[in-house]
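Fig. S4 source data, part A: sequence.
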Amino acid sequence: MMISYNIPEEKVFLSGHNACPGCGEALALRYILNTLGPETVGVVPPSCIAIISGPQPYSSMRIPVYQTTLEASAASAAGIKRALDVQGKTQVNVVALAGDGGTYDIGFQALSAAAERNEDIIYICLDNEGYMNTGAQKSSATPWLAYTTSTPGGKPTGKKNVAEIMAAHEIPYVATATVGFPDDLTAKIRKAKEMKGMRFIVVLTPCLAGWGVPDSQAVRVSRLAVDTGIFPLYEVENGRKYTLNWEPRGIPVDTYLRTQSRYKHLTADQIEEIQQEVNRNMTYLREKQ
């Protein structure tokens, strides 16, 4: 079935960047930046995103981009936003664009502190579930049993639920999104753009090389993550109002896992354990609405 999307875009993110062919992050950046528009300042830590954005004067982004340290994305974004406000440029959006390593792990202290202060920034985590820019090592965003170069037998611990952690800060807006549902992603970016205070969106972006996925399959894999319930699409406003944006279609998790070589070592019993955990998580999320 062909699906058509009517997504208005301003040409802020350009072609000719250094992303891998079919990269999910590059597609996500296109939707995010072209929706935010030119009155935006980007803050980027060391990551695949930094490589994709490129060095001046050859940047793929037609906005100012400040490349910060890996642990300081939220703090840098907060400082830039406060400086712009002092100059009277209150209409300019400041967006931090960080990977899961710089969000779930190394940058979490600054992120949590910015949330506690309710800084007026948009923070977007492009989650490819590992330190993919440095050789596909595991992060705390890596799912249970997934192969990485630092967990060759499969990661022995589960994925940190960073969306729920951020929701516990009771900030104005928390959301999950993925490149497989661009209409949902852009709607959430537009919503965040019109709000004030701390806004946090985690976007699932498959790493083709790190996950062992063909170059043409980033969108399909992303959709399967949602339709199986492995990565539900939802929003949380002020830490309390939950909205499930897409009801999973009940596709077995095995359908998603078989698309990626990082799961090829799983046994039938392990797959069933993952299925039961997904079922429990979806029940919990539905009850929160």
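Fig. S4 source data, part B ends here. The CA atoms of residues 141 and 195 lie 27 Å apart.
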